[in-house]
Amino acid sequence: MINIVLFGKPGAGKGTQAEFLKEKYNLTHLSTGDIFRYNIKNDTELGQLAKTYMDKGDLVPDEVTIQMLQSEVDKNPQSAGFLFDGFPRTLAQAEALDRFLEAKGQNITATVALEADDNILVARLLERGKTSGRPDDQDEEKIRNRYQEYNEKTAPLMDYYKAQGKFHAVNGIGTIEEVTERLTNVFDSF
């Protein structure tokens, strides 16, 4: 089983690349953003709670995120592996994910970070916000708040995974095909 964490700031291309990677490597794609939106759309209790944070541009607290993710993993017992997109975002989430997978006799194979300049990403999100209808993609202040949260809470995960020899950085700037090729080169090394 292969379990990959794909991370990067909002707008870095995780969702776009995950679509290709899940097909090529036969992985179940678990996007916390998609899971949140599903729960919000279906007005679940966890969805209502997550929405209060997302509307402010804040990250959803660990305990809510972890509960949603564990539920999705448990729904896919026959999966060949998982592509975690947007999770973990904090050290506490990484440790919780490790414990959860270990209880299932699994572990994280590797983490891959799509890296890109903040100004380029802000422009991408504002453009996406014109058609996505997502309020968190239509306000530059909220976007930059998400980046600040990322820098404070998620960036330290690089050291966590580097210490395990599981961290790989990939340049997320270029055409979709160029970034896909870079990711494929990294994935093929596992």
What order do the helices and strands come in, and which of them pair?
Layout: E1 2-7, H1 14-25, E2 28-31, H2 32-41, H3 45-54, H4 62-74, E3 81-85, H5 91-103, E4 110-115, H6 118-132, H7 140-154, H8 157-163, E5 167-171, H9 176-187
Parallel strand pairs: 1-3, 1-4, 2-3, 4-5
Helix pairs in contact: 1-9, 2-3, 4-5, 6-7
Structure in words:
The protein is α/β, with parallel strands linked by helices. Helix content is 56%, strand content 14%. The chain has nine helices and five strands. It has helices at residues 14-25, 32-41, 45-54, 62-74, 91-103, 118-132, 140-154, 157-163, 176-187; strands spanning 2-7, 28-31, 81-85, 110-115, 167-171. The protein has a five-stranded parallel sheet, sandwiched between helices. Helix 4 (62-74) runs parallel beside helix 5 and helix 6 packs across helix 7. The relative contact order is 0.19.
What key phrases describe this protein's structure?
single chain; 190 residues; alpha/beta; 5-stranded parallel sheet; 56% helix
N-end to C-end Cα span: 11 Å
**Radius of gyration based on Cα positions:** 16 Å
Average pLDDT reading: 89
- State the order of secondary-structure elements, H for helix, E for strand: EHEHHHEHEHHHEH
